Amino acid sequence: MAALSGSSSECCTLKKALNRLISNTSSSPRTRTRSEPLYVISLERYGRDADFALRFPDSVSMSESLFDATITDGDCKIRVSLDPAVNRLISVNMLHCGSVIRHVELSRGEDSASFHVCSLEVDRVSGGDAALRALSSVSVRAIPWMGAEPSAGPLRARRSSYLPLWNNHDFCGEMWRDTAPSEPDAEDSEEEIDEISLNSRNPAAQITIIPKNQISPDWVLPDLPHSFICGQELPSCPQGHIGDVIGVVIFVGRPERVRRKDGQRSEIEEYRWLQLADRTSDKPIMIKLFSTSQPDIQSRIYPMALLVCTRLKLIRSAVDRATTFEYLTNTSLTQVYCTGTGSHPVMPYRGIRPIRQFLHWLKQVDESSLLERAVIGGYFGYPPLPVSLPNFMENRRGEAGLISGGEMKLECEKLIYREKRQFAIQCVITAACYHHREDSGRTQYSDLPSAPLSPRVRRQREGSEPHRTPVKRKLFSSTSPRKRLAPPLQPLATEDDAERDFSLFDGAMEFLVGEQEDDSNDEDEDEDFSTPPSSPMTSRLGLTRVANETLPRVFCYERRHVQAVAVGLQVNNFHKLLPQRELESFSPASCYTGYFTLTMRALSDGVMLDVVFLPAAPGNLHWMPLPLSHNNSWESILSHGGFSPHAPPPSPADLIATANQLTNQRLLCVLDACALGGEKMELVLNRAFPLR
């Protein structure tokens, strides 16, 4: 085969590598690029076919998918298939559109005209925006192909089109076209019609409206095509009720993924939380919308849009016997209409009474008040968990029980991009830090879990300002826990500092090195609360700073399309790619005032967990506290997930001053874990129940 020709320069990295490959006459030729960077400008997925096991016998259990990529060096580009061995890098979003790759090993395809990537190295040192910077002066679409332009279909399987990158349900791409519905059969079109005439007079017809609860099943009445329910009616609807809703979107959550098990198989489903406001209730209508229903619309739902969802199923969750929460989710018949998406033009429910009433309210509503509540993205946990340990454990019947720190670390390493999972683990809190909104709302987080430190070395927080003297407090001391701890405030810390950045640093020497109490009466008690010794090699999991993806953002109507991409899942084409810090250009929502970071130690094996805690507070319409009063102690706040709704919340300074409540306190912690991409693992504390 002749060497490849084209308009690319002679120093083109791809051209030189492929010419070496073509000139290699061995039975299975391969070549590897050197340290020159290559850039991934598209990534496309498709399902494997029946020949997969023959082509990749060592990768049968790795993935159900195959991937093609377009790579460039800036002078030319080529589309290649990727070996299933690199699928894991894609599934955790370490290899993605915009990645810089080096030392790429290439081989010839089966038809001798295509090329296959056997292995590669992702350059994580150059930064996430290296490809954007390197290709900023060229038109990526105008970069010439190396050789002939490839076909539009997949390279390694007998498939006619590609799938979405992150779900299996959105088949509305460029390769798909709408087709007219088929003509109904003559037998199906001949339906029996009964005509009923109602006299207006001589004699006048009498019409009686029968309430729903008086309709007998023996009448076998057909189901109504639409049954709209409002927010006020949701609490009185039975579990599993099927209904329709209409409202103004005031919250669109970030897309997340969850693993659903169906028999022997497990499939990843994409979903996002929505909140709708209607005229009837101060509480928003909660919807957990999966991508199984019109995912092309789901990705384009913005706050302040008018949304109609039909045939939703009501799910009810109980916090205690008297407190329940409801949300709606998809059924197989759910349809979605959202203004601004240009879809679903036929609305047969337009003229029915609930719709007319809602539209009448919409004309009179104060739009600015709704805009103030409009939020997009960020962590959102719903429905609320029970506030007592017995109720929580009862609700977990059939689910995995408590796990050790090492087991949790292994399970988190299995999570794929944006997959969310909940864990229950026994811990003690060894350190805490409060970060005020002004210090951390838009700034750094740690890209990697911080390195474990010796228990005798004070921990340096990443991103801390060198000129600030934080307020420090030991959560535990080497003295008896019954002794009063020293006041937390230091003379060098100003009052402003105390409100902005509170820190509780490691100080539990008897926990870390296994020292015994001097008081013999406390010996048994100390054994119960002891944890394994720590060492500089102790495993660690989580982030020491809140991730940008964790914070909810103020909705920006003027930049709503950019904001939706910034909040959404990783894109698969270079022309959609945004800088990694684009999300930071949108201000955190007013519901976010700050956060706690808690350092926890697993009781089972000493694994350290860096956890974010976002307590719900009175007046917060996004993270609303439970309607249950408590005394705002640390124990109550952690078990309720936030502050009491019937009392002013304590200031962070007050909480730090009472941190001795956590001394030697064993906790059963419920953690929400979400893989944010690469090695970023978000851990958010949902509940922490004291163990007696």
Brief write-up:
The chain is α+β, with helices and mostly antiparallel strands and 692 residues long. It has helices at 13-23, 52-55, 87-91, 130-134, 186-189, 295-298, 353-364, 367-373, 389-395, 405-414, 437-440, 495-500, 509-513, 523-529, 560-567, 634-640, 652-657, and strands at 30-32, 38-47, 65-72, 77-82, 100-108, 115-122, 242-252, 256-262, 265-277, 285-290, 306-318, 324-329, 335-338, 375-376, 420-436, 471-474, 501-505, 540-542, 553-554, 594-602, 608-613, 667-677, 680-690. The protein has three domains: 13-142, Nucleic acid-binding proteins (OB fold (Dihydrolipoamide Acetyltransferase, E2P), Beta Barrel), CATH 2.40.50.140; 226-376, OB fold (Dihydrolipoamide Acetyltransferase, E2P); 402-548 and 591-690, no CATH class.
Q: Please, how many helices? A: 17
Shape: globular
Poorly predicted parts: 186-190, 440-536
The whole-number mean of residue pLDDT values reads 80
Estimated structural class: alpha+beta
Roughly how many Å is the radius of gyration?
A: 29 Å
User: Largest beta sheet, briefly?
Assistant: 8 strands, mixed
Number of strands: 23
- Helical residues, percent: 10-25%
Q: Estimate nothing, just give the exact number of structural domains.
A: 3
Range of strand content: 25-35%
Distance between the termini: 76 Å
Biased composition (Basic residues): 469-485
Protein name: Si:ch73-71d17.2
Region (Disordered): 440-497, 515-540
Biased composition (Acidic residues): 515-529
